[in-house]
Specification:
The protein is of the alpha/beta class and 246 residues long. It has ten helices and nine strands. Helix content is 38%, strand content 18%. The structure holds ligand BV8 and zinc ion. The site of zinc ion has 8 residues, from loops.
Length: 246
């Protein structure tokens, strides 16, 4: 049974992604070479303390990432995931990424465990605003109450949004195949998701350019860039489905 047959025959296949799936869009990963964290340490910027100390610096970093993502756009890896959902094979995408590229590629059922670059939340009145382009001023102010807006992302030391976490656990628990794409598997509790699926009997297929903390529990390891491996997988799955339908 090869991976394409496994995915084509899956009763409930989901995709779990990390920064690696956006690397070929030109969005640097967190821990790889040239990664986001190379210039900054996570503790410096992606934490409530950093924001309290210097909201302008933190927003400049997020605006820089918004501009990167805004110009970049989804890559063939994101589009392959969207196509697997469109042909009814993939039921949902659970992502650690905040770049919104899965949605821009056409994925509809996306669970954002760590929030989104494209939402801002008022620290005073709690109002949440959708952003359709990079913020102009850093830090932006709440149109309603004038309070400070923060990126609506999960920083280190902060809990994940309850509804996103519960949806992710529910999806992982009922899946029989999980494609784990472009994650180092070191950030918790997100990294529990592939483990929860495995504990419920799912087969894990990892797509990564190098081994990760997930590899020891993966049933299949497809070494390569997701922008190349996933489109190939989609073609083979569609062939498999075609023969099954005929
Ligand atoms: C919490 C949003 C408690 C913001 C992010 C010690 C041990 C264990 C845990 C901890 C610890 N100390 C602290 C913790 C907890 C901490 C944590 O896990 N830290 C880690 C670093 C050890 N977790 C937290 O703080 C979480 N909150 O625990 O709260 C709590 C609970 C209840 C009540 C109150 C408090 C919150 C974690 C969320 C942090 N926010 N992002 C932002 O983006 O600015 S995390 C950040 O890392 C991104 O979301 C990113 O997605 C995520 C994980 O990284 P990856 O996605 O895996 O990316 P990475 O660069 O690491 O890897 C890329 C992979 O892609 C590599 O494997 C590479 O080989 C591969 N790749 C590269 N190119 C390609 C490719 N693959 C395929 N194709 C390619 N072309
Ligand atoms: Zn407000």
């Amino acid at each position: 049974m090869d991976v394409a047959d496994l995915v084509a025959a899956a009763r409930h296949c989901i995709v779990f992604t990390g920064a690696g799936i956006s690397a070929e869009s030109g969005v640097p990963t967190f821990r790889g070479a040239g990664g986001l964290w190379e210039r900054y340490r996570p503790e410096e910027l992606a934490t409530p303390e950093a924001f309290a100390r210097d909201p302008e610096l933190v927003w400049r970093w997020y605006r820089w990432r918004q501009e990167l993502v805004y110009r970049a756009g989804p890559n063939p890896g994101h589009r392959a995931v969207a196509e697997l959902e469109a042909i009814g094979v993939v039921k949902a995408v659970i992502t650690q990424n905040v770049d919104g590229l899965h949605q821009r590629a056409g994925s509809r059922n996306v669970v954002e465990l760590h929030g989104s670059l494209w939402r801002a939340r008022c620290v005073e009145c709690g109002a949440v605003y959708r952003l359709d382009k990079p913020v102009e001023e850093a830090p932006p102010r709440c149109p309603r109450c004038g309070g400070l807006l923060r990126p609506d992302v999960v920083w280190f030391g902060e809990p994940l949004p309850r509804d996103a976490w519960e949806r992710a656990v529910e999806l992982a628990s009922r899946s029989d195949v999980v494609l784990v794409v472009g994650t180092s598997g070191v950030v918790y509790p997100a990294a529990y998701i592939p483990r929860i699926a495995k504990d419920h009997g799912a087969v894990l297929v990892e797509v990564n350019v190098e081994e990760s903390a997930i590899t020891p529990i993966a049933d299949f390891f497809l070494r390569g860039r997701s922008g190349e491996v996933l489109p190939r997988l989609v073609e083979e799955v569609k062939k498999g489905l075609g023969t099954r339908r005929s």
